[in-house]
Amino acid sequence: MSATDWTPRPGGAPWLSQVRAQASMEARLMLRNGEQLLLAVVIPVIVLVGAVKGADRVDLDLTGRAIDVFTPGVLALAVMSTAFTSLAIATGFERRYGVIKRLGSSPLPRSGLLAGKVGALVAVEALQVVVISVAALAMGWEPAGGPGAVAGVLLAVVLGTAAFAALGLFLAGSLRAEATLAAANLVYLLLMAGGAVVLPASAYGSFGEVVRWLPSGALGGAMRDALVDGVVAPVALLTLLGWAVVGTVLTARTFKWE
Amino acid sequence: MVSDAAPAVAVDGLVMRYGEKVAVDELSLTVERGTITAVLGPNGAGKTTTLETCEGYRRPQRGTVRVLGLDPVADRADLLPRIGVMLQGSGAWSGVRAMEMLRHVARLHAHPMDVDLLAERLGLGECGRTPYRRLSGGQQQRLGLAMALVGRPEIVFVDEPTAGMDPQSRRTTWELLGELRDAGVTVVLTTHYMDEAERLADRIHIIDHGRLIASGSPVQLTRGGTVATIRLVVSRPFPAGAPDSLRAALGEAIEVTLLDEVSLLVTGPADASTLAKVSGWCEAQGVLPESLTLGQRTLEDVFLELTGRELQP
After folding, report:
1. Cβ–Cβ contacts within 10 Å for residue B227, how many?
2. 8 A C-beta contact, residue B8 and residue B186
3. Taking a C-beta distance cutoff of 8 angstroms, is the pair B11, B60 a contact?
4. Looking at the partner chain, which of A12, A93, A98 has a beta carbon nearest the beta carbon of B91?
5. Which positions in chain A touch B87 (Cβ < 8 Å)?
6. CA of A3, closest CA in chain B: separation in Å?
7. Which residue of chain A comes nearest to B177, CA vs CA?
């Protein structure tokens, strides 16, 4: 065998290339995992179909067609599943398997690792939005249009991702990997059922006044305001911003990379 | 440039504690560039802690650590691209394929090695598409080494590199680390295998309980070819004062170390006359030799003499 050239030639790749590599790696791993894929696209689509069919039978007192009310909520559910549940579980196991430690001695800085995670979330969320929107359009979804709708959706997704990702990292940083897995799934199920994400807060009666302040209720509300009425929802967006700040402070105080 | 004149690694007065336990105790050592330097010691001696301080994972509680003249914590961003690190165990996503992981680490570097050639060299060809969790322990070790080397580092830190490897892989790894040194790469390895240190290292630092107890080349530590050992084991415990009377019988150039109540070690020029004197002494003392073995002094003997304990449990 020919001699291998081991001559040192050290150096880190440019920051942006490192981030791109990290983001595509994390996104691929997220989508390769069967449970994660189920959580990311299969469950939201099933929830959408089930909710629309179910609304025909039960009188939910909705302020519009079922498909138009539920699609924004299911998009919010998808953001929550990726930014919170998937991110928390993935990060929990990265800590456990020493991946973060290993990357800690590579040229990838902490900022690059974090940016890579954001990139992976955005890529998976984009895929989710496409799949869910196509399914919804096939079922007769007629979203609101105009600058209010576009700005409202973008702000809701960005702030919702920030809030849930910060809370997800807080969870992953303070619990063991198995406990993170259980807690992240449990919180997801509880918020899906009772967090005013798919169903509007008004459907919860007087309890609605409480759940609209949860990150799930705020994200669902902001998405519905944007896609049903075509407007930006300032209170819901500020609520998400508040959760993002709280989550970031908690994570910054407690998170250990190893 | 300051950093180019600096030694590869300079540890000075390092102290590291975990709660009450002192892991590293006033440790000072230097690693010259372009050498293979082994940090040898039993499990729990403080080897990994020392290495992780050099890699910037831990901040020195007291003392200083410099790698290529840089502070591993404060100058982290400048240092990390220049070093390669092989951790003890894991360090990859459980679902990632072996080659996918190696390619990923390569992409983080500016001038990575050809990953296919590197994988072939390390015998990772057949398991390239295998998920990390299904790799054998030895394959995970070799992938870990590949990840440490792919960025063409100036220094590689390898923590117990051959633990869990089969003999064939061990030899390949030793060969490869030798090539790295010849190409100008500094190799710092920890090991508790003395044969690994003896065969591979240009310089050995022996540490125990977090302290440096001996340093030197393998030849210096085992004192070259002129010194050998005679290990005497007897059937009944030695009479009182046995070491002194044997020392008197053998003369000044020879050391006698009592290992336990039935065995002792004679260190010095091993020749027929020394051997004859030892058996003559046995006859005079009325002790019956059970075995009398002649051998080169090994690092194991050095460690035993310095600490009174075996290196490997």
Report:
1. 16
2. yes
3. no
4. A98
5. 98, 101-102, 105
6. 9
7. A6
Do B234 and B266 have their domain in common?
yes
C-alpha distances (whole Å) from B138 to each of A17, B100, B132, B199 are 31, 18, 12, 21
Q: Are A44 and A128 in contact (CB under 8 A)?
A: yes
Q: Which sign, positive or negative, has the C-alpha torsion A189, A191, A197, A203?
A: positive
Does residue A148 carry a pLDDT above 60?
A: yes
Q: Do A98 and B90 touch (CB under 8 A)?
A: yes
Size of interface A-B (CB pairs under 8 A): 117
ipTM confidence: 0.87
The token pair that represents A139 in the structure block: 């079922």
- The residue in chain B having the minimum alpha-carbon distance to the alpha carbon of residue A25 is B104
Which residue in the block uniquely carries the two structure tokens 């050995």?
Answer: B204
Contact A13 B108 (CB under 8 A): yes
When the pLDDT of each residue in chain A is averaged and rounded to a whole number, the result is: 92
Q: How far apart are CA A118 and CA A125, in angstroms?
A: 10
Other CB atoms within a 10 A radius of the CB of residue B167 amount to 8
**Domain containing residue B243:** 227-297
A72 contacts A129 by C-beta, under 8 angstroms:
no
pLDDT at B195: 85
Q: Which of A102, A111, A181, A258 to mutate to test the interface with B (most CBs of B within 10 A)?
A: A102
| pTM of model > 0.90 | no
Q: Rounded to a whole number, what is the largest CA-CA distance in chain B?
A: 73
Written as six digits, the tokens of B185 are 């790469």
pLDDT tens figures, A189-242: 999 999 999 989 888 888 888 999 999 999 999 999 999 999 999 999 999 999
Is residue B251 domain-shared with residue B196, that is, in the same domain? no
Residues B162 and B27 in one domain: yes
Q: Give how far the C-alpha of residue A66 lies from the chain's centroid of Cα atoms, to the nearest Å.
A: 23
Domain presence at residue B164:
yes
Do the domain assignments include residue A199?
A: yes
